[in-house]
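F.,

This is the one I mentioned.
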């Protein structure tokens, strides 16, 4: 009789190897005896769909638990069982735990066959929801300002940008600025501050940052190094007609290009008309799909 150790118990014993092999067949895999880490990785590297990967992990954990339970019953209660009965136990346990799995399947025959053989409910990938992102001009007498800011991870360079449009959709001006900030959130905040400094009295601001829109309701959430500037900005807004809106990033390509221009440039640049590198976004009506 071979000495009992972890590798022998869980992956080298002929009895446990038969269990592993039977369950591998369910997932369309070939079992090769080895340490538990190797057995686990053979499933992790199988390019399963999210739902199959969840089921694989459930199956793996169930088999490890079952082998340990069988070992204790054999040693202390002298109970023996067959490979087929234990495989049925595993197949019954995995569906019972499957509600814990949140992944979706792929619309492939392999996924259908495996999921059906295990006896769990299919979880198809949800259909993509298409949302039209359209730029709308402001009311008469207002200026709409689209702003954006960001920081490049690779170079650490940051920039902000904004474009000003009237109720007819005509560009009144645009800016980009190079920034020395530690994060994209700082860049977004400074973009708002700069836009308000340059703006008219009746303004609508559009940003793709939900966090920035939240800062107007909860100023204490603003990064501490910008908090004084933000408070001064809010005081300035008390003398203006002001609105803030969130827009999907697909509708913010023009100012994203301005922010990138600022990150790669230096200082502050102002244009009285739209710069040529954002013409394509403006002529498209700033329409995108999310």
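My design for it:
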């Amino acid at each position: 009789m071979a000495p009992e150790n972890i590798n022998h118990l869980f992956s080298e014993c002929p009895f446990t190897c038969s269990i592993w092999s039977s369950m591998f067949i369910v997932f369309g895999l070939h079992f090769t005896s080895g340490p538990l880490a190797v057995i686990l990785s053979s499933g992790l590297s199988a390019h399963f769909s999210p739902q199959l990967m969840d089921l694989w992990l459930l199956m793996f954990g169930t088999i490890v638990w079952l082998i340990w339970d069988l070992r204790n019953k054999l040693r202390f209660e002298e109970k023996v069982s067959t490979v087929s009965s234990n495989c049925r136990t595993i197949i019954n346990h995995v569906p019972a735990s499957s509600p814990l799995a949140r992944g979706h399947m792929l619309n492939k025959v392999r996924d259908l066959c495996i999921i059906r053989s295990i006896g769990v409910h299919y979880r198809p990938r949800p259909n993509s929801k298409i949302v039209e992102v359209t730029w709308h001009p402001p009311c008469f007498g207002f200026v709409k300002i689209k702003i954006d800011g960001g920081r490049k991870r690779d170079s650490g360079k940051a920039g902000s940008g904004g474009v000003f449009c009237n109720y007819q959709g005509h560009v009144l001006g645009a800016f980009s600025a190079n920034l020395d900030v530690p994060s994209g959130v700082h860049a977004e905040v400074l973009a708002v501050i700069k836009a308000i400094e340059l703006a008219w009295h009746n303004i609508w601001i559009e940003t793709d940052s939900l966090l920035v829109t939240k800062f107007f309701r909860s100023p204490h959430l603003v990064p501490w190094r910008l908090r004084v500037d933000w408070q001064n900005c809010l005081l300035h807004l008390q003398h203006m007609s002001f609105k803030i809106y969130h827009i999907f990033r697909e509708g913010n390509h023009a100012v994203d290009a301005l922010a990138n221009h600022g990150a790669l440039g230096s200082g502050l640049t102002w244009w009285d008309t739209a710069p040529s590198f954002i013409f394509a976004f403006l002529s498209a009506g700033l329409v995108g799909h999310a």
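Strands lie at 132-133, 143-151, 158-165, 171-179, 202-207, 241-246, 268-271, 288-289.

Talk soon.
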